[in-house]
Design goal:
This protein is α/β, with parallel strands linked by helices. The protein has helices at residues 3-11, 15-23, 33-52, 61-76, 102-112, 132-142, 153-165, 186-193, 208-214, 241-250, 275-280, 306-314, 316-320, 325-339, 343-346, 348-353, 357-371, 414-422, 446-461; strands at 84-85, 120-121, 126-127, 146-150, 169-173, 196-200, 219-225, 255-260, 285-289, 300-304, 380-388, 400-408, 428-429, 431-433, 436-440. The longest helix has 20 residues, at 33-52. 40% of the residues are buried. The structure holds pyridoxal-5'-phosphate. The site of pyridoxal-5'-phosphate (PLP) has 14 residues, from helix 7 and strand 8.
């Protein structure tokens, strides 16, 4: 090792000296001595390594303290935090799917720092059931006899099949053996549950007689799966749901349906069946997500005939997939939005999906107005028509008309801007089209407009 390197190593400040310096600096003195020591050791060890590798690095105390500050910021700042969704994808699974409504947030806030009636029946002063809190609301909103809520829809399907069909046969159309992404595949979930999959029909056509011929004494259920994320078009067939329900009833079999998104109200676009409609058509048990079109917290909602839901409640898996109290509180709050009658206004994802073109255009105008000062500096800012996706693996055939604000910098590429917008403390997730940043306004809240303008001014002036 050459002597220059040795000299430099010898000059490295001691941990004690750095600690004293750290404690005399107001900002760092808020951390415990233990944490500061650990972090300072790390940065000094890294410096020692760099010097040995022949790198020319600063060894001033101030620089070490700055490096420690960076590391401490990473520890103190939350990794899971808010982002601004400028992609236009309403149910963006990677961005946390559904933002919660005001009532849902209030419900969560109401129990989050206190004890709650989670599994306590106040009237009787006895142990209660966590499922009871939302069962009446679901009965009222869908006509279901009973309800059970679990961790997510994938868990709901696993629980239903484990409970109703373990070591027995489940009949599924070949056109519905879907993969939902994130490795949820119907055949794999059935295998995990111990149920034996009996495929019937073909990819594009399955007839009632196909189901009928597949029924044996070993059959435990017929499973329908909503092809949420793709459509088969052209020469297709699947039997009407009421006929399939009749067939199941004649053989005393439960007809189970994985509805995927599951909407409680009819939507103004697409052809999504309502949960109530499916139950009225004779489906015995439906399962769907809490954080897709319902617009609440992550949950798997199971509704239907009490005789099929009762065994699910006591199944050993039920405990493993049970819903958390925060999600349950959010769900109850969201269901009140529906019960009170204004879900299109009160539930954010439903509101975002049903915005009128005028509303969207007004939002785009608000954003362009806020960005306008940049035009003088050579930035290009214009409103463009775009299509936004509902997302969440729903409505593959639907693209909603929306407006975007396209921004182009006089100095920087769109790729570089996109990266900087994404790497802010409050990230803004955008997309690039024609070498321009496109901000789809569909999923923006009013307060986001100001923040986006602030971000562009920062980018322009630093
Ligand atoms: C989304 C989806 C699932 C998975 O639901 P999670 O709540 O994300 O677990 C299962 N089946 C279908 C048809 C879906 O669309």
């Amino acid at each position: 090792m050459n002597s220059e390197i040795n000299d430099k190593l010898r000059l490295l400040p001691s941990i004690d000296a750095l600690l004293i310096a750290a404690f005399s600096c107001g900002e760092l003195s808020k951390y415990s001595a233990k944490l500061l020591t650990a972090v300072l050791r790390e940065v000094v060890a890294k410096a020692r390594q760099d010097i040995q590798n022949g790198e020319n690095i600063s060894i001033s105390k101030e620089d070490f303290l700055n490096k420690a500050r960076c590391r401490l910021d990473k520890i103190i700042n939350l990794n899971l935090h808010r982002v601004i969704n400028a992609t236009g994808v309403v149910l963006h699974t990677n961005l946390g799917r559904a933002p919660l409504s005001k009532r849902a947030r209030q419900a969560v806030r109401g129990i989050i720092s206190n004890y709650s009636s989670l599994e306590y029946n106040i009237a009787d002063g006895q142990r209660g059931s966590r499922h009871a809190h939302v069962a009446d609301a679901f009965r009222q909103l869908t006509g279901a006899e009973d309800a059970l809520v679990v961790n997510n829809n994938a868990a709901a399907i696993l629980l239903i099949m484990s409970s109703l069909a373990k070591e027995k046969e489940v009949i599924v159309s070949r056109g519905e053996l879907v993969e939902i992404g994130g490795s949820f595949r119907i055949p794999d979930v059935l295998k995990e549950s111990g149920a034996h999959l009996v495929e019937v029909g073909t990819t594009n056509r399955t007839h009632l007689s196909d189901y009928e011929k597949a029924i044996t004494p070993r059959t435990a259920a017929i499973l329908k799966v909503h092809t949420s994320n793709y459509r088969i078009i052209g020469f297709t067939n699947c039997p009407p749901i009421d006929q399939l329900a009749k067939l199941a009833r004649e053989h005393n079999l439960p007809l189970v349906e994985d509805l995927g998104s599951g909407t409680l109200i009819p939507l103004e676009f697409g052809d999504e069946p309502t949960v109530k409609g499916r139950l009225e058509s004779g489906v015995d048990v439906v399962a769907f997500s809490g954080d897709k079109l319902l617009g609440s917290a992550q949950a798997g909602i199971i509704l239907g005939l009490a005789k099929y839901i009762a065994p699910l409640k006591t199944h050993p898996l039920a405990r493993a997939v049970r819903i958390d109290k925060l999600s349950l509180a959010a769900l109850e709050g969201t269901l009140k939005d529906y019960q009170l009658g204004y879900p299109l206004l009160d539930v954010p994802v439903l509101h975002m999906l049903h915005q009128s073109k005028d509303e969207l255009h007004d939002k785009a105008r608000g954003l362009t107005a806020a960005l306008m000062p940049l035009e003088k500096e050579g930035w290009g800012i214009e409103i463009i028509p775009v299509h936004s996706m509902p997302g969440g693996g729903s409505f593959p055939a639907v693209a909603l008309e929306s407006f975007g604000v396209a921004v182009i910098s006089p100095l920087e590429s769109a790729a570089s801007l996109e990266k900087k917008l994404r790497n802010r403390c409050l990230p803004i997730i955008t997309r690039i089209e024609d070498n321009k940043i496109v901000i789809d306004v569909r999923c923006l809240f009013n307060s986001d407009i100001e923040e986006i303008a602030k971000a562009f001014f920062e980018l322009a002036h630093h």
